[in-house]
Structure formats: C-alpha cells, structure tokens
UniProtKB/TrEMBL annotation:
It is found in: Cell membrane. Residues 1-24 form the signal peptide. This is FAS1 domain-containing protein. Belongs to the fasciclin-like AGP family. It comes from the Eukaryota. May be a cell surface adhesion protein.
Length: 230
C-alpha cells in the first residue's frame, strides 16, 4: 500500500523538484542602468542641455562612465532659462570641439555631495581639461545654505539637487558655466536686458523737462527778489 502511494506521488515530487531548481538557478534581476537624458527630461526644463548632450555625445559618455566605470561624477545642469540669457546665436557660433568643451566644463571628475562643497579645493577639476593654466578655472564658494560657482566669465548658483545616487550627482544651476578658454575673446556674451537702453526720444524728453524745471526755478528766484525789493 505504501509503495503504491509513493508511486502515485512521484510525478508530483519530480515536478516540484524541477520548479525549485529552476527558481534557484534563475539570475537576479539587474537594476536598470542610469540614463542622464531620462533624468533631465523628467524635470521638463533642461531641453537645451539635453540637446547639447546628445549633439556632442557627452550624454553617452556620462552614461558609460556611471554604468561601467568605478569613478563617480558631478553634473551642473543649466536650465532652459539659463541658456536663454545667452546672446542669440552664440551656441551656434561655437565649433563642435567648443561645444564638447562647454559640456565637459559642467562635469566634475568625482562625485561631490552638497555638504562636501564646503571642503573642496579650488579650482575644481572638470572634464574639460587642465585648469592650472587658467583656461578652464571653476571655483566654488559654499556656505551652509548656498553654493556659488564662478568661471571668470560668470557666476552660477546651485539651486537644488536634481538626482543623486552612489555614482552621480546632478545639480540645477541658474546660469550656464562659461569657460574663459572659449568666451574670453567675446565682447558680449549675454542677451541684452529686456528693458534695453533708453530710446533717443525718452532721453530728449527728459532733457527738455529738466531744462523747463531749471528755467522755472530761475524765474521764481527773480520774482522773489523783485518782491522783496518793493
């Protein structure tokens, strides 16, 4: 009786043993690779930066470094509003090499958290090249509440952290970081103020009003002297 019972359960035991072995041998699910383009697109205000990272292939370089390399990195991400402050056509005037250098200038060669900025040494090391010759200087001043970055051309403020993990830190900045190597020879880099310079008509009107006031003051002074002399 026992023998017949064991024989009847044998197929079920074989099936369960096979399922257990298969589950045990199945590989663990790997985490999805980090994609810098997806990180920036999720925010919805870095379309110009995303275009430049794709056009220069620096975005692919970042993804390769953080997914296959052992070293971390830090990316300063200018918003679309930051790019809009640049003079019209200035990006298109850059050569392909200069566009690559501009993007690499926004990438530090190591992972730096917000708190670590208070202890870093200037100038910061970027992927754009050597900074000891003064061509790609990037200096930081930091307090408990604010991180400012200066390039010799402009200054940017770290607005907030966009993304961080063990390999990469992405920070939103309110200005494009402009390296001296590329922009020092340009007399004008930024777009003119929306208000613009005063028009000739407004200047003439202001001058006329001033002249009328001065004439009125002189007339009142003469009239006052005449009244006292009576």
């Amino acid at each position: 009786m026992m023998k017949q019972l064991l024989l009847s359960f044998s197929p079920l035991l074989v099936f369960l043993l096979h399922c257990t072995t298969t589950v045990a041998q199945s590989p663990a699910t790997s985490p999805a690779p980090t994609n810098i383009t997806a990180i920036l697109e999720k925010s919805g205000k870095f379309s110009t930066l995303v275009w430049l990272l794709g056009n220069t292939q620096v975005g692919d370089r970042i993804n390769t470094q953080i997914n296959k390399g052992n070293k971390g990195l830090t990316l300063f991400a200018p918003t679309d509003a930051a790019f809009s402050r640049l003079k019209s056509g200035i990006l298109n005037s850059l050569s392909d090499q200069q566009k690559v250098q501009l993007m690499l200038f926004h990438i530090l060669t190591s992972f730096i958290s917000l708190s670590q900025f208070q202890a870093v040494s200037n100038p910061l090391h970027t992927q754009a090249g050597e900074n000891s010759n003064g061509h790609f200087p990037l200096n930081v001043t930091s307090s408990a509440k604010q991180v400012n970055i200066t390039t010799g051309i402009d200054t940017a403020n770290v607005a907030k952290s966009i993304y961080t993990d063990s390999q990469i830190a992405v920070y939103e900045v309110d200005n494009v970081l402009l390296p001296l190597e590329i922009f020092r020879h340009l007399s004008s880099v930024f777009a003119p103020s929306p208000e613009g310079p005063p028009s000739r008509a407004s200047v003439d009107t202001s001058s006329a009003m001033g002249l009328m006031i001065r004439h009125a003051a002189v007339w009142l002074g003469v009239a006052a002297i005449a009244a006292f002399s009576l």
